Amino acid sequence: MIDPRRLRVLRALADHGTVTAAGQALHLTPSAVSQQLAALEAECGQQLLRRRGRRVSLTPAGELMVVHANAVAAELERAQATLAALDSGVQGMVRLASFASAITMVVAPAIASLRAGSPGVTMQVQDVEGHASIPLLLDGEVDLAITEEYRLSPRTDESRLTRFPLYVEPFDVVLPITHRLAGASEVDIDELADDEWIAPKPGNPCRDVLMIVCANPAIRHVSDDFHAITTLVAAGEGVALVPRNAFTAVPGAVAVPLRGEPPLRRVFAAVRRGSADHPLLKTVLAALLDAAPGHANAGRGSRT
């Protein structure tokens, strides 16, 4: 028999790349992770890992077992949701990770709605960058993530997630009010080729968007805080590309739409596949969808 708990360890290794990182995600020592993986190999009768010194990679058999591990995890989530549905009373806490502007636009209004309509349901919110919330969700640190993708970026691993679209927003260019284009109704990105930029840090998808739409931008300052970025723009330190709902008015800076088809940020809620029918998550997801801009036209059956 294959122990499903050991499949979880294998998944963590595939997610995080090293035994040490997998142990940190699972709150296990590296030695315990190695022991669990060795036991799983014995149960499977196959070599699942290639070991080169301290480095470990998956064999074809290991990659196949990760696929099965994902399916087992989804069924366990589904079983938990079914059992929870037997309880007629919906109450408990949902742990949620979201980036700041989505907390303002969607999460906080949803909490207020739940307090009025479902007082037994509470949320514990973590403010994290959008690209960091999915790893927290897959590691089991949160129950629900609000995150983002971009028109020019690849989708995340859909075999492990159920997604609920919330809203779509374009990127605008943020300029100092003294900039030559600050009074324009629209700006062509090519008109800013000689400007210095204030951008998110490497690894942040918003920085990737800038690198795609603007050839070789001269980046002067970096920050993952859009309010800080806007403040630097207002100080005359450069220009920036900011999602529309992440822009907060600062004296000395103005947001101007881009001409043509701007890059888009698609914001969605995600849960682990199999857990979407859990009564607590269904209640919170309904509140989030109700709070999302334009929800009346989006429909509630838009799982993707």
Automatic annotation (TrEMBL):
GO terms for molecular function: DNA binding; DNA-binding transcription factor activity. Keywords: DNA-binding, Transcription, Transcription regulation. One of its GO terms (cellular component) is protein-DNA complex. PROSITE patterns: HTH_LYSR. It holds the Pfam family HTH_1. Residues 2-59 form the HTH lysR-type domain. Belongs to the LysR transcriptional regulatory family. This is LysR family transcriptional regulator. It comes from Amycolatopsis keratiniphila.
